[in-house]
Design brief:
two-stranded antiparallel ribbon; 18 helices
Length: about 425
């Protein structure tokens, strides 16, 4: 937008995207942190508190965000059940690949966790929760004794259970629950708007949280980013080669080599645009060349762009192990299960707000008792990893379309 100053000269107002702002904050945090290596106390006393404010706002929004986004997502899926067989098969496929994705992310990052350096990051009081609790007790603790305590105490596993029960109940009741459904959908929009306001502070929060960490740990922290990015993309590659290739070959009867060759235009567009929704036209054209009818792709691909986020599931799992190792925390089986469950739900309910995945990352960390301060570390590379996450989403959507095409043809030929 061009502006005219008092001297009649034109000035150009440049509006930087949130991604660019966070990137600049990351660079500035590194630079100032290195300069303050001999004044760590100053960084902790006068810079870090402003980052803590940003974290407090994230903690404040996580509970209502998770509660309303999950319920609203289930309400929107009532139309899927009405579409019958195709809808149920598609959702089942997406859920199955998401569970495999987060499991793969946790397994690979755990095997390679020694490549992650140990840094000085405050560990919250809840980080050791679950270490002495049995698996059965963990399952029992997922189910709330009342509806208020989980919301007040930010017990994320119980909040998720409440949201799932409420969402399924509203869909079951149907027309009589429409006023409540409309209220929840409206509340979800309001919560998403509040999250948008909070994310405007993300650059300041990242700078104020990262600067003291760099000041205390030195320049070798740069290696943490290289390690995290490397493990993320390794998991993306493995998931594509092992899971998607197996699905298109075994279930879709399409050669993986042909599948990926035809999908190259969509994958390149997804990587550059960072949006699976914007890639939809290209993805549709690519799946058409793979023999998928428009009636299938027009249903599966838009749905997948909304709820199929295998890349997010992998990213949340890898980042959780990364933060735990950096803080010297040995994850227990219960914490792994909490991360897997929360990451699966979070990947489905990722809000369409810039930086929304960071809020859900805070939810996953809270569910496993990991320090939410780790969000600031991950935020710096979120955009770089997000390009790979988008490629994963588009690949998963296309693989589902190929599989559903074969299933529908087989079912129709059998019925005739």
């Amino acid at each position: 937008m061009k502006l005219i100053d008092k001297y009649g000269m034109q000035r150009i107002k440049i509006k930087l995207s949130l991604t660019v702002q966070i990137g600049l904050a990351l660079a500035l945090g590194f630079a100032v942190g290195i300069l303050l290596q001999n004044n760590v106390e100053f960084a902790n006393s006068y810079i870090k508190p402003f980052g803590t404010i940003f974290l407090n706002l994230l903690k404040f929004i996580v509970v209502p965000l998770v509660l309303f986004s999950i319920i609203a997502g289930l309400i929107s899926m009532k139309d899927i059940s009405a579409l019958g067989r195709l809808g149920l098969r598609t959702v089942a496929y997406f859920m199955a690949t998401t569970v495999v994705a987060v499991t793969l992310g946790l397994l690979v990052s755990t095997l390679l966790k020694d490549v992650f350096p140990v840094i000085s990051l405050p560990v919250g009081e809840s980080s050791e929760e679950g270490s002495s609790i049995s698996f059965l007790d963990q399952v029992i603790n997922m189910f709330p004794g009342n509806i208020v305590a989980p919301l007040l105490n930010a017990n994320m596993m119980q909040v998720i259970v409440i949201a799932l029960l409420a969402g399924f109940a509203i869909v079951k009741v149907g027309r009589k629950a429409e006023p409540l459904a409309n209220l929840i959908v409206s509340a979800n929009e309001v919560i998403s708007a509040i999250l948008g306001f909070i994310m405007k502070l993300a650059p300041l929060g990242v700078f104020c949280l990262l600067c003291p960490v760099v000041a205390e740990n030195g320049v070798h922290i740069i290696g943490t980013y290289a390690a995290l990015i490397g493990v993320d993309y390794l998991c993306f590659l493995l998931h594509a080669i092992i899971v998607y290739s197996s699905c298109v070959r075994g279930l879709g009867k399409v050669a993986p080599r042909r599948f990926f060759k035809e999908m190259i235009p969509a994958l390149m567009f997804a990587f550059s645009s960072d949006s699976s929704l914007a890639t939809l036209p290209v993805t549709t054209e690519c799946t058409r060349k793979l023999g998928v009818r428009d009636s299938i792709s027009n249903f599966v691909l838009p749905l997948g762009a909304t709820i199929n986020m295998d890349g997010v599931a992998i990213y949340l799992g890898v980042t959780s192990v990364f933060i735990a190792h950096c803080c010297g925390i040995d994850l227990t089986l219960n914490q792994y299960l909490s991360i897997a469950f929360a990451s699966t739900i979070a990947s489905i309910g990722t809000p369409g707000v810039p930086g929304g995945s960071l809020a859900l990352m805070a939810m996953v960390f809270a569910s496993a008792g990991l320090p939410i301060e780790g969000v600031a570390i991950a935020a710096g590379i979120d955009r770089i990893v997000d390009m790979g996450r988008t490629v994963m989403s588009v690949t998963g959507d296309a693989s589902c379309a190929v599989v559903m095409e074969r299933f529908e043809r087989k079912t129709n030929s059998g019925a005739s």
